[in-house]
Write a structure and sequence with these properties.
This protein is an all-alpha fold and 180 residues long. It has one domain. The chain has 6 helices and no strands. It is globular. The two termini are 25 Å apart.
């Protein structure tokens, strides 16, 4: 049980870090925005281990290395974009919502790709998958909410500096994703 919670928190760190950046970016958080991002991140963290568990060796062997690189590149681009946004004038900055549409799907994929490998590992050691994935999903959703709230407070307190820090966090997460 302790190992499952440790795994859940380790997998949720990506969602937490991205949620901080999103909270900084959005500033004002509506309850549906918080729900949408936390639900989708939690769902992705719940679903990806199941896919890894079911598909096992085939998925990890075929796309494992490339998936980490793709996820890392996506996170680096998002981090760079967040930093770039801090230096643009208000009129020319992007007004989009990263918790909707294609942006949401990309973030879901980028933050949950390591859960795919975790599911494969759980299959190798013979662990039943449903209970651990429920815990992983709930922890990820909870950490996403905490990240959004924390990011919003950072953004309100430190303004552009917080945006730059959020971008650097995403770039650091990208490097970690690719190298580890």
């Amino acid at each position: 049980m302790l190992n499952i919670f440790a795994l859940a928190f380790a997998l949720a760190f990506d969602a937490f870090a991205v949620a901080i950046a999103v909270g900084i970016r959005l500033g004002e958080l509506e309850k549906w925005t918080v729900f949408r991002l936390s639900f989708h991140f939690g769902f992705a963290q719940f679903g990806m281990p199941i896919i890894g568990w079911l598909a096992g060796d085939y998925i990890v062997g075929t796309i494992g290395v490339y998936a980490k690189i793709i996820a890392g590149v996506i996170l680096a681009i998002l981090g760079g974009r967040l930093i770039w946004e801090q230096f643009k004038t208000e009129a020319s900055s992007w007004k989009g919502d990263p918790t909707r549409g294609a942006s949401l799907l990309v973030l879901m994929f980028a933050t949950s790709i390591d859960a795919l490998a975790a599911g494969f590992t759980l299959a190798l050691v013979g662990v039943e998958i449903l209970y651990p994935t429920l815990i992983i999903g709930v922890v990820a959703a909870s950490m996403t909410i905490l990240g959004l709230v924390f990011g919003r407070k950072l953004g309100m307190t430190f303004g552009r500096t917080a945006g730059i820090i959020g971008g650097l966090i995403l770039i650091g997460l990208a490097v970690k994703t690719i190298l580890v």
